[in-house]
Amino acid sequence: MRKQGFVLASVILMATVFITKVLGIIYRIPLTHILGGMGMAYFSSSHSVFMPVYAISVSGIPPAVAKLTAGYCAVGNYRDARKLRQVAHSFFLIVGLSFTAFLILFSGPVCTHVIGEPGSRLSVAAIAPCVVIGALTAVERGYCEGMQNMLPTAVSEIIEAVMKLALGLLLAQLTAMKAQADFEQGSAVFGTLCQTYEEARSVALPYIAAASTLGVTLSNLFGLIYIKLHSRLSGDGISKEMLIKAQTDKRRRYLLRELLALAVPFAVASVISTISGLIDLMTINRCLDRAAEASPEYFSERFGGISETLADGERLSSFIYGSYSGLALTVFGIVPSLTAMLGRSILPLVSSSFATSDKKKLSQSVRAVVMLSLFAAIPCGLGISVFSEEILLFLFSGRTDEIMVSQRALSVLGLATIPLAVTTPLFSVFQALGRQFSPIGITLLGCFVKLIMNLLLVSIPQLNIVGAGISTLICYIVMAAVSLILLRRDCGKGHISNRQTTSIFLSAILCIEGAYLLYSVLSNCLSMRISFVVSVLFSVNIYIYSLDILSVLPKSRLKSYFSR
Questions:
Q1: Confidence at 348, pLDDT banded by 50, 70, 90
Q2: Quick one: which H or E segment has residue 414?
Q3: Structural domain spans, the chain
Q4: What average pLDDT does this structure show over 14-22?
């Protein structure tokens, strides 16, 4: 099995995330056209219910398996590494099946009484099998990442993204076409006789959202099939001689205890991070309703045209939340997803350095992940903030109402990508250093801040959904600040360079200013899309040249990471 160094591994995973995010956006654009704001509310609500269950049962597996595998291999315990993989498969298969059954059985009560979106029930049931599929896939990915081979993870994630794009849209479109054909023929639309097209569409939306969600489940199944075949055909690079020389052969019970001791804190931290989405789901609609009651004139002036297009039984607050989650949060999640890969790629290296007490390599790795996170996050965050409207028009042209609702919120969320993109990989560093509970405490603090800010800000009529963006920004600033303070205590002052950070900010400001000026000129004579693309490419050149002039990322340092 071929190993990669930190930067090469990071490049592989970040390129994978970039590809999957592009495919995800391509998927979301037609899906948004098919579902609209109301249908996206069902789709997003089902994911908000699913993610905490997925997080507690699956998310702790890859980092825990990767950390233990890297640690065992670093000291020659290859027999334990293989046995750990087998133990993880058996245990998490049972866990995954249990949570899948739980989601299917309780999807109705949760959607009706907890989140207030009964139409999401079918989507929750459709995505439930992803728990057991994801658990088995996560074991294989964690094992490969612990062996410092990121390619199986990368290929399987790309396969999932491609199949989600194909199957998710196909199933959603076929379901929408069936509903339309039934209405035009005078037949019942999914068991309901409808008098108008709007009523028929309203009845069909939960089924269309569930069909697209089923495509997600099938895509995860294809990813599992690939990574299982790869494991069987390619092996793991451990030879018979390496197994014979293995120093220990631990019992399965002991390996399971070690695995759970790491996986549970990982899972708890991940679950708490998903609470942010649940907080939005449980507070935004209610706060928007209160804001509308407090100032009906303002809401009528700003959202009156949207209200007139909604069918009977559809709420304005659900449309606003669906637009915010379907458009703004989709764009917002791109950059943190990329920098999260730095954490996944650094975890095996930090774990092996920690296991062998190599403090120099440990310090260099931590410094690299912080600076590379800032390098990627700062220009992207500022760009999203400045070009929020252009980005939404570029991706979701034609969804005028949804863009109008979410544009200002995305402008604020763009700034929030910077602290979030730095915090996410640092959580992996804490866990690799044996501080598994630090991310839990930090995330709990952030969620508490977000809850309070949501209740205070979203209820203000003039802010409405923008208040959710502001609360997210404040939440992640607090989390990033606490994370950096704790990291400074553990690793000393040298993990962040003030000069380099300032240089990155200056370079990012220059590139965004250059993009804005060029776009202002080109948009007068060219189309919006062409002007935007040319401006972005121009700004990338400005950023790279600025970093090169300021010597922010020395080539010798990057070369040393590739050579590991």
A1: low
A2: helix 400-432
A3: 6-496, 505-564
A4: 79
What is the average per-residue pLDDT within 436-457? 88
Q: Which two tokens stand for residue 266?
A: 């990982």
- Binned at pLDDT 50, 70 and 90, residue 515 comes out as very high
**Measured distance CA(157)–CA(359) in Å, rounded:** 33
Position 498, amino acid:
N
Better-predicted residue by pLDDT, 136 or 82:
136
| Distance separating alpha carbons of residues 470 and 411, to the nearest angstrom | 10
The 10 Å CB-count burial string (b at 16+, else e) for 225-237 is: ebbeebbeeeebe
* 132-151 per-position pLDDT tens digit: 999 999 999 888 888 878 88
Q: Answer for the pair 134, 61: CB distance below 8 angstroms, yes or no.
A: no
Going by C-alpha positions, the residue among 411, 394, 421, 361 that lies closest to residue 533 is: 394
Q: How far apart are CA 458 and CA 158, in angstroms?
A: 37
Say if residues 108 and 121 touch (Cβ distance below 8 Å).
yes
Per the CB < 8 A criterion, the answer to whether 96 and 57 are in contact is: yes
Tokens of 558: 């990057």
Would you mind telling me the total number of residues written for the chain in this entry? 564
| Residue-level pLDDT at 253 | 83
- Provide mean pLDDT across the span 395-411: 86
Map residue 33 onto helix, strand or coil: helix
CB distance 373 to 425 below 8 Å: yes
Question: In the predicted model, is pLDDT for residue 561 greater than 60?
Answer: no
Is residue 366's pLDDT more than 80? no
CA distance 386 to 380: 10
224, containing H or E segment? helix 197-234
Angle, vertex CA 296, rays to CA 294 and CA 300, nearest 5: 150
CB 471 within 8 A of CB 458: yes
Q: What is the pLDDT, as a whole number, of residue 58?
A: 85
Instruction: Identify whether the C-beta of residue 83 lies closer than 8 Å to the C-beta of residue 252.
Output: yes
What letter would DSSP give residue 442? H
- Give me the residues paired with residue 189 across strands: 192
Q: What is the pTM of this model?
A: 0.68
Mean pLDDT for all residues in the chain: 82
Q: Is 311 helix (H, G, I), strand (E, B) or coil?
A: coil
Element of type H or E holding 337: helix 334-355
Inter-residue contact 383 to 442 (CB < 8 Å)? no
Report yes or no: 482 and 445 within 8 Å, Cβ to Cβ. Answer: yes
How far apart are alpha carbons 355 and 75 in whole angstroms? 8
Cβ distance 360 to 1 under 8 Å?
A: no
Round to whole Å and give the CA distance between 85 and 183.
Answer: 52
Q: Taking Cα atoms as reference points, which of 468, 443, 466 lies closest to residue 453?
A: 468
246-271 b/e (C-beta count within 10 Å ≥ 16 → b): beeebeeeebbebbeebbebbbbbbb
Query: Which residue's structure tokens are 């209405």?
Result: 183
Structure-model confidence comparison of residues 377 and 243, the more confident one:
377
Of residues 298, 304, 301, the one with CA closest to residue 319:
304
Distance between CA atoms of 270 and 447, rounded to whole angstroms? Answer: 12
* Distance in angstroms (rounded) separating the CA atoms of residues 132 and 89: 11
